[in-house]
Records
---
Amino acid sequence: MANLNYYHESGLSAAFYDVVSNAYPFRGDIDFYAALAGPAGASVLELGCGTGRIVIALAERGYGVFGVDLAPAMIQRAAMKCERLPPEVGRRIALMQGDMTRVALDRRFDAVIIPFYGYAHLADPAARARALAVVAEHLRPGGQAAIHLPAPAMLRRPLGDEELSGPYNAAGDQVRIRVVERTFDEATSRFRQVMDYTLIDAAGTVTRQSREDLVYHAAGRDEIAGSADRCGLTLSRTLADFDGSETGREIIHVFTRRD
Ligand SMILES: C[S@@+](CC[C@H](N)C(=O)[O-])C[C@H]1O[C@@H](n2cnc3c(N)ncnc32)[C@H](O)[C@@H]1O
């Protein structure tokens, strides 16, 4: 049987996305995006908002945030989390299921962000150029945008013994997440990671399993800078981590919208 695509409704990766994202080593992305947008009260469009990790954190700090995600299983989780927020926070958030290469909201934001590898899901240069055009169309002149990508060293790292566990529910059930295969094809710049999700009940019995493919496509700086320039965005800086360090396993491209 073929593996499920990551974030598919019948899999487990969407349900346990927060367990995986909490374990990621980079820190400080929310502070970074807040600084990019300006003072509290500024507006942010997040493309590929997932389960609302950043949408909610920015709204709690006073930003108005519009989150868009392609995967129904992800945006539904974001919506469920938003329902539990205090009303004054919840009313700063809007969510929509949609494709970052096609979104047309007919409004502009102080900042547009594509965090945590969302842009790396786009498979070809034409789709990536369309997403940058969407960024430009929704950014006010002088506003800033950021795209966070995995660095090549991250994509090429060999598979180790990679396993993560987390609580599933209050009854003591656990989820176990294991990376079982990882490849990076240099010719096509395609990264594929196969992940096994296993639910285990309090007695230690496996109750559900799902094998899912996470695929990323690496895009070079020249391609991104060129596509950005053609739609009115200037690639102003590229960072290796959110703390501004010169080396790291992340790539953060920052753009400014020309008038
Ligand atoms: C790794 S998650 C990041 C979620 C969130 N931004 C965060 O930082 O926690 C990447 C997200 O991009 C979404 N995505 C992938 N392709 C997309 C597209 N074409 N349009 C909108 N969202 C997309 C996926 O569904 C997924 O939720």
Note: The chain has eight helices and twelve strands.
---
Amino acid sequence: MSQADRDKWNARYLAGAYEERTHPSALLEHWAGRLQVTGLVPKAIDLACGSGRNALFLARRGWRVDAVDISPVALARLRAAAEAENLPVNCVERDLEPASSALDGFANRNYDLALSMRYTDVPLVGALPRVITPGGHLIAEMHLITEKTVAGPRNPRFRVTPGELRKAGAALELLYYHEGLVTDPDGRTVALAQLVGRQPRTPTG
Ligand SMILES: C[S@@+](CC[C@H](N)C(=O)[O-])C[C@H]1O[C@@H](n2cnc3c(N)ncnc32)[C@H](O)[C@@H]1O
């Protein structure tokens, strides 16, 4: 586990990071009701879930969610919120780097939906089809390199280049792809690459 990453994110959450950002991703909100799921209780995995705005959104709509993050502080906040509403969110503390071992222990083809929201790990997106059920979906959103003044990370290491996310999701059927400026529900402008993909009925990987 990268202790430095863990400490950095714990410190941010202890300082109140994202406390006001309780709204789910607009991309997820738009797509959640459009996804076809087979089981009675659909299952999602939310990678680098933070304090769980998206995991909670799904759980309130009847999803069972495995929520994974490196920060125990963020996970404690999510766990408390889920317990207060009696929601089926299973919090998993895990370092998602390297991507090659990030999904060890999660069953293959198990999830109707995998989420990777605003966590810049392109190889992880490439690895995610392994855990998505045939016909299941991936929704991914990453900060995009831009010359405009936008919210989000200043360090370009935490932003993707044009086309990078699309390429990472190439094993999936592409349902939606967008790169550009987006206004978040809180009014902030962000530059994003957004992808919605579907696992083929007969996956290749
Ligand atoms: C910008 S926040 C996004 C949180 C959430 N996905 C959202 O959209 O609100 C990035 C998250 O990535 C997590 N993170 C950073 N490095 C990580 C790693 N190596 N493994 C797992 N999680 C990590 C942080 O703890 C943080 O919660």
Note: The pocket of S-adenosylmethionine is lined by residues 2, 5, 9, 48-50, 53-54, 69-71, 74, 95-97, 117-119 (CB under 6 Å).
